[in-house]
Structures are given as structure tokens and as C-alpha cells.
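Reader question, answered in our methods column.
A reader sent in the components of a multi-part assembly and asked whether the whole thing could be modeled at once rather than chain by chain. We filled in our standard form and ran it. Here is what they sent:
COMPLEX SIZE: two components
ENTRIES:
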Amino acid sequence: MSNEIMSELRKDYIYNLMIKGEREDGRKFDEYREITIDTNVIEKAEGSARVKLGDTHLVVGVKIQTGTPFPDTPDQGVIITNLELIPLASPVFESGPPREDAIELARVVDRGIRESESIDLSKLCITPGEKVWMVFIDVHVLDDGGNIMDAASLGAIAALMTAKLPAQRFDVGEDTPVPMRDVPVAVTAVEIGGTIMLDPSLNEQSIAGTKLTVISNQDGGLSGMQKSGVLPLTTEQINYIVDISIEKAKELREKFLEI
Amino acid sequence: MVKPEKLIENGIRLDGRKPDEIRPIKIKVGVLNRADGSCYFEFGGNKVIAAVYGPREVHPRHMQKSNSAVVRYRYNMASFSVEDRKRPGPDRRSIEVSKVSREALEPVIFQEYFPRSAIDIFVEVLQADAGTRTAGINAASIALADAGIPMKSLVSACAVGKVDDTLVLDLNKDEDNYGQADMPIAMTPDGNITLLQMDGHLTREEFKEGLEMAKNGCLMIAQMQRAALLEKYSSLMEGEVNE
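And here is the structure of the entire assembly that came back:
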């Protein structure tokens, strides 16, 4: 993503707007682009969501099947998150195994869901030590318009909230919803020339030296954080981002995830 | 290993440390002959070794940048470094650790001095005991200086976490496994944060307090890094004067 080609003129233009307190698309610094989330868009998946965040477009599919638990957690289900930046979504994405950008995105989405304990893993146990539910969260990015992180995280939680454990199909009882306890929301900020802004567009993301993603829960607590990019941040900047991210996450959660 | 009933008793952690204390550190500068710079770093039970090669030619060629050096960082865990043998080679975790560690060091390197060249940093974890990425960054920072790479400052890294509802500096293995949060950070001595990750549960207030604790930890480590470099290079300088 960092090797996105952008003309120096456009960089200058965006930078100068920033100094005047404006953004390319007229948004406020803490304003998100338009978000639409549609759930159950893939009937074959146990849960799914299509997210549009401005120009960014992705589909999250949740597949659930039975499997054997890990030896160190015999009474807990398994969550596996994967995200691929396929060449369909951007001229700079290449085919082949996921690279560090994709791996980082997937691992941060995963961390948000896992560390917030949003899924009650103990309720995913069918027979301790033998059979548990395995939840595969796959993020398919279709169009990269910037800030895939927040779109993927919204999509993952939206898909999980509508997902069902296919118990009938696996002959282990009645279908039930995935046991959810919390709704983590990721909010990503970038810093450009000393200004902090949320939900970076593709151009803003290309100019910014550093992104900070803050994942917060329903109670306003933090469950994950990731700084990504080569420029440092000061403590003041980080504390400011944490504060506005928690507020923004609350807003996104109420508006788009109907909590 | 089962979860200990208490990880902190009467304000003292299982390994005898106070909450704001870091584990013992041992540093050796210039331990490898072939590398341009190297460092052996012990951080509690962690034993890591960092080597720096470069600036040197970039292979593959298409990776080179016309206006600056490329910095590459490979974090690798030895198969014998952990309890259950780790399958050798990069996995998703080590690719992510490599990425964030590289980004933790890049801000201090004067990359623009070496266009079309590569600065390669290799970190091998010989023994892991929670906090390997921070140990790796601490070692790599010294190895870069040892290689004579122009830098704005050193980078120091340290984690803060939460166990038994108490914020503690520099988690050990049990605290990492059974604790409630883990937040590794790296920073320059003037307070610029170059790495920040967090997982677990922290309130906004705990986060702010934790960040300050981790910064103090980094400052303590920075002094030791500096001392280790001075130890090697001040003796060399004295030698020259005597001649």
C-alpha cells in the first residue's frame, strides 16, 4: 500500500489543504466517509457482510465448521482470520501469498475480535478435547479506497453478529447464533503535518507517515492497538487519538451495528 | 504450566520484581565477525542476537529506491527457543513482528544518505521469554550504531502490561500468558514513539498510565544501550590517544 504512486502535485495539494484545515473530500478531520453495511449477502456462508466505506469495498464471509481444539485449549473454539489483498482490488496488489501488509491487517482484525473476547470461545466447545466449532473469518477486499483496516473490522463484527453455528448440518443439535459478548470497533487515524485525521482516504493514507488503529469495546475500554508506518508519534498525539477513537467507535457502533 | 493463583503478592511479582522494575539486561556489542555491526542482548530469559549488514547493494534489484536506502528487518525465532519446538522459518507472527520492528527503527536512520542501497537487520531469537520483539529492537538499535549507520538517536523498547489488575513493566512469560494486557512500545530518548501495539484489556486511564511507565522503562534501557556502546568505543578512542 505504501508504494501507491501519487503525483507530487497531488501530495502538495492535499498537504496545503490540511494546513488550511480542510480535506480533499470536504470532510471534517474526525468525520468518516459514508458507510453502508449489508449483512447476509452470501447465503452459503454462515455469516457475511458487505462493507462500503467511501470508495473502499469489501466482503467478509464467516464459515463455521467442526474441528479438533488446540491441545492447550481443549474446551475452547477456534477463530482464524484471514485477509487477502488480491490484485482485483488495486493496481499495486500482487497475487501470491499474503505479504506483510495483508498479514498485519488480518492480525489486527483478529486481535480486536479475540482480545475483546467478543466471541465466547468456551461456548464454541462441543465435546471437550475432541470437537469444537472453528470460526473462519475471511476478508475479501474488492476495491481499495483507503482504510481497509476499519472497513474489515466493521465487516468482521457485522458478519459474526449475524452468523449461525450450523449445528444441524454437522448433526450436533439446533442452529444457534454465534455467542457474542462484545462489539469491538477499530478506528484508524493518520497524522499528516501535525494534524490528526480519522478514516484516511487512499490519497491521505499514501501521504501519511503513520497510522494508528485503536480498537475499543462497548464499555469504552481498549482491546487492541497498532501503530503502522515509519513516522513516530508523540505521547500527546497518541493520547489524543485514543480519546477521539473511543468516542468515534461508540458512534459507529450505535449507527451501523445497531447496538 | 497451570495458571498461578496470584501473579502479584504484596506488591511483588513472582520473579521478585516490583511492578515498575525491568528484568536484568546484559549487552555485548560487536559479537559477530562477518557482520558490519552486531549485538548480543539478554533481557531476562530472552537471548537475542542482532546483526547489521550494509549499506550494501540491493538484491533483488527492483527493491532499490533511487532516493534512499531500503531498510530490511528479519525477525526469526530459533526452533529451540521455545518450550514446544517452533517450526523453522517465517510465520505470520514473525512477518508482522519484522514489519513493526523495522518501522520502529526506520525513523532514526538517515536513509537518504544511501540511495540505491540496503541496510539489512537480522535478529535471531535464541531463547524466548516474553518480550522478544522489544529485546530484538534494543539489540538491533545497538547493532546499527555498531555498524556505523548514521542515526538520529538510539531506539529503546519495552513492554507494559496488566496482571492481577495492576500495571507492570516488562512482562515475563507467566505474566504474558496469564495477564490481562500486553503493550510493547519503542521510543527515542526524546520521547517519540516509534512502535505501539496493544492487546488485552485496558481502560483509557490505564493506557495513559501504562504508556508513561513504558516510557520510563525505555529510558532506563536507553542508558544501558548507551553505556554498552561507550564501553566498546571509548576504549578504542583511548588507545588512539595513547599512540
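What stands out: Chain A has one domain: 8-256. The radius of gyration of chain A is 19 Å.
Send us your own complexes using the same form.
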